[in-house]
Amino acid sequence: MAPRERGAKVLAPLLLLLALLGSPGAGLEVQHKFLSPTLTNNFALDGLGSKIYLAAVNRLYQLSGPNLTLEVEEQVGPVPDNPLCHAPQLPQASCEHPKVLTNNYNKILQPDPEQGIVVVCGSIYQGFCQLRSMANISAVAVSFPPGGAGAGAGGGGDPVTVFPSMLNIAANHPNASTVGLVLRPAGPAGGGRPDTRLLVGATYTGFGSPFFPRNQSLEDHRFENTPEIAIRALNARGDLAKLFTFDLNPSDDNIFKIKQGAKARHKLSFVRAFLHPAPPPRGAAAAAAYAYLALNSEANAGDKESHSHSLLARICLAEPGRNASAGETKKLTESYIQVGLQCGAGGGDGFTRLVSVFPATAALQLGPPAAPPQELLFGVFERAAPPGARQHSALCAFRFADIERRIRQARHSCFVEPDAGLVTVLDSVVQGTGPACEKRNIQ
């Protein structure tokens, strides 16, 4: 699933806004604060700002906004674990490898207000996820697997057939990246509306990666069960036998996975998953939107001359009203397309590794005359530096109009004038209809 970087054109920034060199400046006054005794990993809001969810190593917190008063605290680690063992939630799972107390680093913290749940995924148990209550994050809202070992206290139910691919969701190493995004269907509930889904991007941590235990073991539960990019079922009120599965049929059309022989040469590091345009209020009819994945790719990751390439991938979501009665959604393998991002000058002088992104509506010219606001993507990038050298970074802005134009050009190059340097779809893919963009119905 390695992107074709060689010769690929990148999207230049609209404006290099600021070089972030660590210069001192006046800080804002802190109004309220909450201190966690362990490293914090993620935080999220309930949508109204009345509750704040904070995930730290081995801890989950629920705070009241805006004064950050602690409402609920839940311990989620450390637990006995071994990365060579299946998750204990897998029925009849056994493991001959010794387990040690392992810290639980939060990887995904995604509220879904419509279902009243928070998706909480950690690094333990091969990246196992739980569905917790938004009203009380210490409570498991939906036991999964239902009736199985370690299911928790929320609901029970008859046992279902559970596969490792339903449990291995997030990256199982503290330093391996994972991003998640709840994909809510458009329109009001009912009427055959498609189910809620979960988009996940996770760095590969199995055999051949720098995260795999160095004990010469060939037991790798990650390759078969944890694709780098996947869309999973997230209907907590429906058939739990489908929960966290790759919900399209055939499932191969909803996952991207690098071939085993190419994994050691290609490392994907995910920065953020987000929707654009922003979703409308709950219950409103939504405009056709896209899910974006911001990531870095290190081609030939094992070589000394390896450099990161920043990428922005777009995934087309289901259009409102189109085949909604049949629950039909866009296939990941049909809609995925990506462009390169670079901050600064071309050549080797640019900032090529993406650190953070944020979509926003803003006017770049303050006037006079004042410029109209635009849909922009802000990104913080860093430049490769030798060990011990001062790390430089920069902030760049990209117009979404330019991003969409580049993607249209890429789509045109697929069907009319093939240009491998312009379009970048995922190569070395195990699943799907093949890596050639000419064979994909790219949306």
TrEMBL record:
Keyword presence, NAD: no
Membrane-traversing stretches: none
Record domain Sema: where: 18-443
Gene Ontology CC terms, in alphabetical order: plasma membrane; semaphorin receptor complex
InterPro entries, sorted: Plexin, Semap_dom, Semap_dom_sf, WD40/YVTN_repeat-like_dom_sf
Keyword vocabulary terms for this entry: Glycoprotein, Signal
Keyword Signal included in the entry's annotation: yes
Residues of the signal peptide: 1-27
SMART domains (alphabetical): Sema
Any GO MF annotation of the entry: semaphorin receptor activity
GO terms classed as biological process: endothelial cell migration; negative regulation of cell adhesion; positive regulation of axonogenesis; regulation of cell migration; regulation of cell shape
Record-linked SUPFAM superfamilies: Sema domain
One Pfam family linked to the record: Sema
PANTHER family attached to this UniProt entry: PLEXIN, PLEXIN-D1
Full protein name: Sema domain-containing protein
